[in-house]
Write a structure and sequence with these properties.
CATH architecture: Orthogonal Bundle
Largest sheet: 2 strands, antiparallel
Shape: globular
Distance between the termini: 44 Å
CATH class: Mainly Alpha
Number of strands: 2
Number of domains: 1
Order of helices and strands: HEEHHHHHHHHHHHH
Strand content: under 5%
Length: 299
């Protein structure tokens, strides 16, 4: 009996060993190494030299671009995450209405989420918002002045925000699953009582969907803080114009692999990790005030 249990356990460990090896080699060990490097002066060409908290001191008190990247990232997160969630919820509610061919529409609308983070899409987005791109041609056709998306820092950042909103597919799919778990009888009873669409939305849909909203909010906030590919491809790795799109991960990359300040780059990575962890904990801590759990009568 013990030999059979040992064989079963060994079989299980063999099957999960690729994940364990990959996690140790490509996640856990690099994370520990970056923590050590954050306290060193390391430029990839010479052995690390211990400097203590100097890297953090330089970032906080001497590097003005660091705070610029923090401000740009916070602006991006504060606008991109709510707009993406609102748009995803709106589309999910439209796709929750039963009609012929609904599965085809759901598949087509989910496609941007599959290819939205690729290099090809970022290049396409850069061409769309070019001076002679289709976006400016459309504005001219409607009688508006064209926008220099790559010459105005605020406009360039909004270009990235619009790309983030366009990648709403994963959030929409989760919202759609949450909407399908709300019993139809709730809406029928509210309609009998004379509740209109807005009242049903705010009294039934939002409260019962609040756990799903919390999950999407946490996941999309984390994803927004680590956004790198669009900013790198669209701005050709520069974060311009005038550092208007210098997102935190992009500046981290430039610190480590352009300026070869690997110690400061590691310090930036750990600051980001701590900030994201604290924000996630804050969202969980405040969720009890607005999330409608099943124990309170929700579905």
């Amino acid at each position: 009996m013990k030999a059979r249990q040992l064989r079963n356990h060994l079989t299980g460990y063999v099957f999960i060993s690729p994940f364990i090896i990959g996690f140790l080699a490509f996640t856990f060990i690099p994370i520990c190494a970056s923590l050590v490097l954050s306290f060193t002066n390391y430029n990839l060409f010479s052995p690390p030299r211990w400097v203590g908290l100097d890297n953090f001191h330089n970032l906080f008190f001497r590097d003005t671009k660091y705070w610029k990247s923090v401000w740009v990232t916070l602006t991006y997160v504060l606008f991109a995450v709510p707009l993406r969630l609102i748009f995803a919820l709106l589309i999910a509610m439209l796709l929750n209405v039963p009609f012929r061919g609904i599965f085809v529409y759901r598949t087509l609308i989910y496609l941007p989420s599959i290819i939205g983070g690729s290099v090809a899409v970022a290049i396409m987005w850069r061409n769309l918002f070019g001076d002679q791109g289709i976006i400016n041609l459309g504005l001219i056709f409607l009688g508006f002045d064209p926008v220099r998306w790559f010459g105005n820092p605020a406009a360039a950042l909004w270009m990235l925000i619009l790309l983030a909103v366009w990648q709403f597919g994963s959030s929409m799919l989760i919202f759609l699953a949450g909407l399908k778990n709300i019993p139809v009888t709730y809406y029928e009873a509210a309609s009998v009582d004379g509740a209109g669409p807005l009242r049903r939305f705010f009294r039934i849909t939002l409260p019962l969907l609040s756990p799903v909203i919390l999950f999407n909010l946490i996941m999309q906030t984390i994803a927004a803080f680590i956004t790198f590919i669009p900013a790198y491809i669209i701005t050709k790795g520069e974060g311009g114009p005038l550092d208007g799109t210098l997102l935190y991960p992009l500046y981290l990359f430039r610190k480590g692999f352009v300026f070869y300040h690997m110690g400061e780059a590691s310090a930036m990575a750990w600051i980001l990790l701590v900030v994201v962890a604290l924000l996630t904990a804050l969202l969980f801590a405040t969720s009890k005030f607005w999330v409608y759990y099943e124990s309170k009568g929700g579905a």
